[in-house]
Amino acid sequence: MPLYRDEAVVLRVHKLGEADRIITLLTRRHGRVRAVGKGVRRTSSKFGARLEPGSHIDVQLHSRLAEGQAPPDGRRGLELVTQTESLGAYGAQLATDYSAWTAVSAICETAERLTEEGEPVLRLYLLLVGALKELVAREHEPGLILDAFLVRAMSTAGWEPALSDCAKCSAPGPHAAFNVPAGGAVCENCRPPGSARPARETIALAAALLGGDWAVADASEPGPRREASGLIAAHLQWHLERGLRSLPFVDRGELMSPGAASVNPTDARAGANRMRPAEPSESFPAFS
Fold first, then answer.
1. Which residues pair with 89 in a beta bridge?
2. Which of 65-74, 78-87, 210-219 has the least mean pLDDT?
3. Tell me: the pLDDT tens digits for 235-253?
4. pLDDT tens-digit series, residues 254-267
5. Could you tell me where the DSSP H helices lie in the chain?
6. CA terminus-to-terminus distance, the chain
7. Does domain 98-274 sit in CATH 1.20.1440.120?
8. Partners of 151 in the beta sheet?
């Protein structure tokens, strides 16, 4: 049962017994890991405060598996936290800012939903750390940082929405229609019934968030921001086939316009065999 160290971000915690917690971590080299923090709910705990959601830590874990051993049931089970060092208490720094904290909650939930236990996802890990750092820096609106994280996380998962060329026939854009089951922007010839017709500024904003063009994103108006948020959220949740519980609590006004982002996953799934999942971009911009 070896010990190993890794950098990690705390995604979620929940109670175990009277004084323990189960900690869900996204680690740099080992992917998503679940571990038990013994006695971390006691006031005398030496590292309980470092194991809060949104914390960036260097952690030592005790595994029940030998190095290189594959878990018999495909799941690693619960590791044991034996030591932690803080690399950035981002969650604690943002806990008094409701807008930023709800963005942290949505970002951490998304990272958990997009990962499998024990599967390394370095790009998503770096993206997660970058998003938390940007929230603490307060150089951009929390809602914009959240949307940038969501659309870039979809890119790492192979679900990048088409924002310039048609998602179905690759005809060069810009295009006026957007359809979530089809994979993003669609031309008039490929446009399925019920497609949204977002403003051109909305698609430009989504492309800016994906490409890291913060000058365009920061200069955007509230209307395109709300519409882009709705489209990005609908695109992500359609692929996840379930909603994000924390997303409705994000404090940035109304997320969705009536026709832009409402999508029924059951009905929309009928078009799944016509979709071509987007490949991740070769160059993935960091939050800077």
1. 55
2. 65-74
3. 999 999 888 899 888 887 4
4. 444 333 333 444 44
5. 90-94, 98-113, 122-137, 142-156, 200-211, 214-218, 222-240, 265-268
6. 40
7. yes
8. none
Give the CATH number of domain 3-94: 2.40.50.140
Two tokens at 160?
């990048």
Q: For residues 232 and 217, what is the distance between their CA atoms, to the nearest angstrom?
A: 14
What φ, ψ does residue 78 adopt, rounded to 5°? Answer: -100, 125
Residue 70 confidence (pLDDT): 58
User: For the whole model, what pTM was predicted?
Assistant: 0.84
Q: Are the CB atoms for 118 and 68 separated by under 8 Å?
A: no
Contact yes or no for 107/244 (Cβ under 8 A): no
d(CA 254, CA 150): 17
Whether residue 218 contacts residue 140, with contact meaning beta carbons closer than 8 Å, is answered with: yes
In order, the DSSP letters of 24-84 are EEEETTTEEEEEEETTTTSTT-SSGGGSSTTEEEEEEEE-SS-TTPPPTTS---EEEEEEE
Domain ranges of the chain: 3-94, 98-274
pLDDT for the residue numbered 251: 81
Q: Which residues pair with 85 in a beta bridge?
A: 58
